[in-house]
């Protein structure tokens, strides 16, 4: 016969605000790490001049 265990005893930990706070803190730390990686990536990126217009001249129109 199966032994009946109360729901309070069957739970291994309580849920609630402590768990939520840990998850929110971890999400915040992940966002800070992401931002730091973005800033570092922008810092080490070589500077490429903006392309304004191509240097090629348009081909002349055919006579006719």
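-> sequence recovered:
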């Amino acid at each position: 016969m199966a032994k009946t265990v109360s729901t309070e005893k069957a739970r291994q930990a309580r849920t609630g605000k402590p768990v939520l706070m840990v998850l929110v803190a971890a999400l915040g730390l992940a966002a800070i790490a992401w931002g730091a990686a973005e800033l570092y990536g922008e810092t080490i990126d070589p500077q490429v001049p903006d392309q304004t217009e191509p240097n090629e001249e348009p081909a002349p129109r055919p006579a006719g």
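The chain is about 50% helix and 0% strand.
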